[in-house]
Amino acid sequence: MTPDNYFTRMRCGEVPPPAVCGLLGAEVRAVDTEAGTLEAAYVAQDTFLNPAGQVQGGMLGAMLDDVTAMLVTATLADGEFCSTLNLNLSFLRPGKPGPLQGHARLERRGRSVCNVVGQLWQDDQLLATATATCMVARRA
């Protein structure tokens, strides 16, 4: 069952996505809240490059933070939100401008804390991984 929450309203176009989604070129491709998975597409712009011509690690980290938090957000009740408490990143190879694919898997969903694993792929190669701990809270 899909919850009626901010995430579903965003996917239906009833509310705008966060501005960071536009910056990262984020687009949710698939979400399965029962299985605890989400897939998203991203676009690394030339403006994301470091002096070596590679996508700056912070931008890859932002994509991983986005994909893991989006998955948690998809599971929330209406009026709840999540904040990233911890994000551990491992960079495996350099990224280049162009499309990337983000994958997230929910490892544990507690009442107030969620553990999520994220991956970022480009050209069928794993670029970076993340483990995220997110806090769930109600809006005041």
Short structural summary:
This protein is of the alpha+beta class and 140 residues long. The chain has helices at residues 6-11, 19-24, 57-75; strands at 27-32, 37-44, 80-91, 98-109, 113-122, 125-138.
If you had to describe this structure to a student in words, what would you say it looks like?
The chain has a 6-stranded antiparallel sheet with strand order 1-2-4-5-6-3, covered by helices on one side. Helix content is 22%, strand content 44%. It has a single domain, classed as Thiol Ester Dehydrase, Chain A. It is built from 3 helices and 6 strands; from the N terminus they run H-H-E-E-H-E-E-E-E. The model has no long low-confidence stretch (mean pLDDT 95). A hairpin with a 3-residue loop joins strand 4 and strand 5. The protein has helices spanning 6-11, 19-24, 57-75; strands spanning 27-32, 37-44, 80-91, 98-109, 113-122, 125-138. With 140 residues, the protein is of the alpha+beta class.
Question: Topology, please?
Answer:
Layout: H1 6-11, H2 19-24, E1 27-32, E2 37-44, H3 57-75, E3 80-91, E4 98-109, E5 113-122, E6 125-138
Antiparallel strand pairs: 1-2, 2-4, 3-6, 4-5, 5-6
